């Protein structure tokens, strides 16, 4: 868990009424090496950038008992010896889904700002994210429905216009079985 | 008249790991001169809430929706220069990392004077005189001499007093105190809290006091909001929260109240930890830790509603509200706890009546 005072999401300005400046190096960065990858976008065409990045989704097992949250791992890798950044359609850099339903929610959870962003990867960078699907779909603002046994597809892709077509998407199938 | 009214404030961080909703649909109000407490575990969103009022949240954080009405104007609609003139002047803040509020290369007096000149248009002489008066007011001995000291020449407690003097230098209407005593030892903690309280009373400044510690809230505040995982889970006048807590999380906090200053593992009596805000569990965010959780709690998210039986959706003005399915009639077995408040020799007992009752104050 990150805390606001330890991050660079807190505006620190000169003057007595904002918290003082922190050591630059102690502030975590969000997007690979930030400015450097932004710069490389000028040099690497989008198509090449897309080809550089691979996405994979995996689970430890193929079957899970009904009711047990399903942990899955999303791995993204930049195969290139230089930094690469992928323009995204909003500040949401990537998405996961179950049976094509984003974040397993049948309702729109949020209205992300309508602003493009970039997802940066340093050279050779591998990013790995652990997620858990609780075996439920959100069906309204305040309600979830747990699923029955069957097969389900867990997918993950970068938040670009056509993640599948751009090769920035992967999926895996799990089976949920009666205990 | 309301001084501050926050309506449906939502703040998100767009991180690589996912979207973090640090403040989720939060509403509350503070009246002039009132002391309002915000309590909750680490990561609950207390600091992000306060920093949002000062418009100090930066990328990848975004104040995504809601309004912050201060003296009738929406702070979220002000220009950068307009908000600057409010910050430090009408609303000031004692930051959680208060040490960084003092610049080590200027004298303490010079820094406070600068703030006064900047906001109040005083000349040098007037600003210095006012600073010395403030240093005296916050209990710094020999203020004329200490005016020319550098921050490192002050002890931790003295530094915090200077920070308070600076925060109060422009006579703000609202003072945001973000855990103002975490870095200090026990006796100093009490002194600093007393100081904030008495200065606020004298100048009729409203205070929003953020802490982990319900004991501190009890000493200082009029009303309280309890936060869990970015959401308000209970709002109440202080005495009501103590004698008749309505949310199981509040009950958990109560059974772990240390006396002010007692730094033993706070909140350790609630087993488990707060979920990561990038990945909240379905239903009630508190269900993995709640001793009363039922099946419904894993699929329905409780709304913050009034607790009088009508289950009216709470607004900024609602005095008493809780977010638990008990109050929307969706809990089968109900809540079952007793609160014993021991006030010196005088144990007062309050039971959450309708069900079979369990023994002591510690529900777990
Ligand atoms: N820069 C950031 N990037 C991502 N998430 C953040 C960032 N800063 C804060 N958060 C999220 O916001 C949540 C609330 O943080 P906040 O600092 O407001 O907590 P708090 O209640 O003040 O905790 P504490 O008692 O430890 O000060 C955290 O749980 C974290 O998930
Ligand atoms: S809704 Fe359920 S889990 Fe949440 S606080 Fe109430 S009883 Fe506990
Ligand atoms: Mg904090």
Structure description:
- The complex is a heterodimer of chains A (179) and B (364).
- In chain A, 7% of the residues lie in helices and 39% in strands.
- Chain A has 2 helices and 12 strands.
- Mean pLDDT of chain B is 87; it is low at 258-268, 344-349 and 353-364.
- Chain B starts with a strand and ends in a 13-residue tail after the last strand.
- Among the domains of chain B are: 98-169, no CATH class; 263-363, no CATH class.
- With 364 residues, chain B is α/β, with parallel strands linked by helices.
- Chain B has helices at 46-53, 80-86, 108-120, 124-137, 143-146, 156-168, 186-203, 214-220, 238-243, 248-254, and strands spanning 4-15, 18-30, 35-39, 61-70, 73-74, 91-94, 174-178, 206-211, 223-228, 231-237, 305-306, 321-322, 338-343, 346-351.
- The longest helix of chain B has 18 residues, at 186-203.
- The radius of gyration of chain B is 21 Å and the shape is elongated.
- The chains are: A mainly beta (179), B alpha/beta (364).
- At the A-B interface, strand 8 and strand 10 of A face strand 1, strand 2, helix 1, strand 4 and helix 3 of B.
- The complex binds adenosine-5'-triphosphate (ATP), iron/sulfur cluster and magnesium ion (MG).
- Residues 46-47, 96, 178 of chain B line the site of magnesium ion.
- Magnesium ion is lined by residues 46-47, 96, 178 of chain B.
């Amino acid at each position: 868990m990150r805390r606001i005072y330890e991050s660079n999401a807190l505006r620190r300005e000169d003057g007595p009424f904002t918290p003082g400046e922190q050591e630059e190096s102690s502030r975590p960065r969000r997007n690979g090496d930030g400015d450097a990858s932004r710069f490389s976008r000028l040099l690497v065409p989008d198509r090449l950038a897309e080809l550089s990045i691979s996405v994979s989704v995996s689970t430890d097992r193929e079957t899970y008992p009904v009711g047990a949250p399903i942990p899955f791992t999303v791995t993204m890798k930049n195969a290139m010896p230089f930094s690469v950044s992928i323009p995204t359609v909003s500040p949401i850099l990537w998405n996961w889904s179950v049976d094509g339903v984003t974040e397993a929610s049948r309702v729109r959870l949020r209205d992300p700002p309508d602003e493009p962003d970039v997802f940066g990867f340093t050279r050779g960078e591998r990013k790995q994210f652990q997620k858990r699907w609780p075996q439920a779909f959100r069906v309204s603002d305040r309600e979830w429905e747990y699923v029955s046994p069957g097969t389900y597809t867990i997918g993950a892709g970068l938040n670009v216009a056509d993640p599948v077509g751009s090769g920035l998407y992967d999926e895996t199938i799990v089976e949920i079985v009666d205990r | 008249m309301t001084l501050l009214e926050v309506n449906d404030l939502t703040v998100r961080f767009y991180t690589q790991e996912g979207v973090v909703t640090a403040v989720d649909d939060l509403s509350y109000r503070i009246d002039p001169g009132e002391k309002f407490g915000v309590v909750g575990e680490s990561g609950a969103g207390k600091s992000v809430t306060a920093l949002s009022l000062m418009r100090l949240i930066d990328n990848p954080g975004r104040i995504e929706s809601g309004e912050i009405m201060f003296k009738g104007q929406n702070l979220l609609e002000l220009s950068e220069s307009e908000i600057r003139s409010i910050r430090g002047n009408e609303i000031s803040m004692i930051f959680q990392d208060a040490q960084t509020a003092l610049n080590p290369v200027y004298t303490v007096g010079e820094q406070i004077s600068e703030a006064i000149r900047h906001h109040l248009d005083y000349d040098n002489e007037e600003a210095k005189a006012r600073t010395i008066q403030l240093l005296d007011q916050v209990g710094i001995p020999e203020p004329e001499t200490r005016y020319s000291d550098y921050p490192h020449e002050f002890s931790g407690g003295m530094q915090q007093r200077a920070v308070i003097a600076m925060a109060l230098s422009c006579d703000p209407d609202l003072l945001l105190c973000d855990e103002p005593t975490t870095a200090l030892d026990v006796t100093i903690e009490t002194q600093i809290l007393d100081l904030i309280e008495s200065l606020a009373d004298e100048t009729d400044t409203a205070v929003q006091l953020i802490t982990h510690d319900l004991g501190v809230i009890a000493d200082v505040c009029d009303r309280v909001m309890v936060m869990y995982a970015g959401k308000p889970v209970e709002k109440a006048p202080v005495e009501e929260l103590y004698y008749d807590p309505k949310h199981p999380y509040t009950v958990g906090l109560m059974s772990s109240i240390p006396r002010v200053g007692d730094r033993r593992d706070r909140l350790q009596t609630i087993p488990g930890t707060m979920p990561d805000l990038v990945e909240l569990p379905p239903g009630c965010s508190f269900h993995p830790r709640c001793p009363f959780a039922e099946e419904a709690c894993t699929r329905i998210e409780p709304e913050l509603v009034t607790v009088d039986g009508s289950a009216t959706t709470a607004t900024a003005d609602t005095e008493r509200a809780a977010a638990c399915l008990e109050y929307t009639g969706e809990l089968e077995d109900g809540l079952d706890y007793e609160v014993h408040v021991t006030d010196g020799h005088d144990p007062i007992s309050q039971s959450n009546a309708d069900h079979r009752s369990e023994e002591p104050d510690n529900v777990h």
